[in-house]
Amino acid sequence: MWREILGQVRHHQGWQNYYRSQGIDLAGIETEKAFKRLPVLKKSDLPRLQKEQPPFAGLAEERRVARIFVSPGPIYDPQGLAGDYWQFAPLFTKIGVGEGDIVQNTFSYHLSPAGFMFDSAARAVGAKVVPAGTGNTALQVEIMRDLQVTAYAGTPGFLLRLLKAAEEKGLWPGRELALSKAIFTAEKVTEEMDRFFQERGIKYIDAYGTADLGCVAYRLPGEEGFTLLDDVYAQICDPDSGEEVRGDMAGELVISRASDVYPLVRFGTGDVSRWVEEGRSIAGVLSRVGDSYKVKGMFVYAHQLKEAVEQLPVEYYQAVITHEHGQDQLTIKVELAAGADGSPQQLEEWAKAIQEMIRVKPQLAVVEKGSISREEKQLVDARAQESKARS
């Protein structure tokens, strides 16, 4: 597999230039050992590289690009011309979605590629798609009932919320609702969620992928790890050195993959994982490297959050990510600057202004001056601690 990937980038001028700038001649890479020692291209470096050479840092075949998406950073992600460009269609097939199914796609179609990822995959297997997008719980429940939707695409937390809202109205899967299949990504399926879906007869598959790479791996209920797709060359590496770590140690997930649009070699996803079965399955996303975390399916970068909050009359802040009632929550504690009133209306306006920058709407909470520790990070992911506390 590594030979195919290497052969592709050897004939790609942008990739040749990228390696030449680091003193590397791809013609001299002749063994898998040498391939594994190529420098890691960090996802966190893409904003800088793309700004220097827009839109894709010269690493994509622009003549084969159909759409350009924008991920936080900003990072510009290409979509190729293929019908199932991101390779999620096989996952729909694995849970029996095909002709005759109606898929309610609750991922965003705005700037982010997630909506199109699952839309194109569902259509590739012959299913009809309701491009529902995010939010609007009451309307989504109504759509699910009226159209007798059979499959769902979105985060597990949002489906949990939809079904609880539906059941409060007396609408149950297997009775008033036809929903029986689901494909999830961007959020962990907790034991509570798994139990909830299984009790309602909903067959689901949990996917791991990125906007850059498309679908990378999947997990079915009861499986410990996420099984890698056949064309994925994965490594678990030390995030600093780029060297592979031993055994079941955790490290950065580094992916190489062939593509006639956007081949990627030793791409550092920024996701921390470990092997469940080396070369075959990974443990999913255990945490993030550096200063970014995935919240409600979107990456929140510390530097972008800082830039957004600095536009407000705030003296100091700390943002904390939690997981409450089946959903991720971003709460920003703020110490107000002199003259700021901090009224509910004002906080709502600030929350919307921050959302414009980071694509996730936070909750703001005013705290006393000096109450936020200056020793702690200003973007804290508390979900891991919550998970340990529950177990």
Outline the structure in words:
There is one protein chain. This protein is of the alpha/beta class. It folds into 3 domains: 2-66 and 229-288, no CATH class; 89-209, 3-Layer(aba) Sandwich (Rossmann fold); 294-390, GMP Synthetase, Chain A, domain 3 (2-Layer Sandwich). It contains 12 helices and 22 strands. It has helices spanning 2-10, 13-20, 32-35, 46-52, 89-94, 114-124, 137-146, 156-168, 191-199, 302-309, 344-358, 383-390, and strands at residues 41-42, 65-71, 75-80, 102-105, 128-131, 151-154, 181-184, 203-210, 214-219, 226-228, 233-237, 251-257, 264-273, 275-277, 281-282, 287-288, 292-295, 298-301, 314-324, 327-336, 363-366, 379-381. The strands form 5 sheets. Strands 5-4-6-7-8-9-10-15-14 form a 9-stranded mixed sheet, with helices on both faces. α6 (114-124) links the parallel β4 and β5. The longest helix has 15 residues, at 344-358. The model has no long low-confidence stretch (mean pLDDT 94).
Helix content: 25-40%
- Indicate the structural class: alpha/beta
Runs in which pLDDT lies below 50 for 5 or more consecutive residues are none
* Spatial shape: globular
Number of helices: 12
Enumerate the strands of the largest sheet in spatial order, edge to edge or round the barrel: 5-4-6-7-8-9-10-15-14
